[in-house]
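Notebook entry, structure prediction.
Reason for the run: the old model in the group folder had no record of what sequence produced it. Starting over properly, with the input documented here first.
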Amino acid sequence: MRYFELEPEVPCALGEGTAMELRPDAYPLVIRPQFEWSLGYLGDDLLTTHPVYFVTRPLAESLQTSGLSGFRLSMEFDVTVNEQLPNAKPGWSPPAIVWLRVTGDAGIDDFGLSATAGLIVSHAALALLRTHRLEHCEVTAVE
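New structure, fully documented this time:
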C-alpha cells in the first residue's frame, strides 16, 4: 500500500490556552488544543498547527462514515479568533471545525504521524481527502 505525507494549510496557531505535555525526545503531546484563527485561511478542509490537525465539518462527516483507520474525531478543544482578524476581514466567520486526533501508526493505518508529527495517510485516505478542498496542501509520496 502506498502512503503519503501531507502538509496542510496553516491558518491558525495554538493559543495560550492549549494544554500540552512536553516530551524529551518527541513532539509535544497536545491534550486539549486552543485553535486560534489567524489572517491566513485560504479555505481548505484539512488544516494544521503543529502538531495538531483539524478538519472542517463536511470533511469530518465524510471521515466518520469512511471506515478508514487511525483517527478519532473530537470536539474537545477551544476556538478563538485573533484580535486582528475582524478588522482585516469584516463580516468573515470561520467554518465549523473538528479535531482530527491521529491515533494510528504511520505506514500501517490509514492515518498516522511521523516521528516529527507529519501527517502520513494511505492512498485510500488521500482519495477521500481529495473529494474535499485541499488546494493548499502539499502531498509527497513516502518511500
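Summary: The chain has one domain: 3-142.
The old model has been moved to the deprecated folder.
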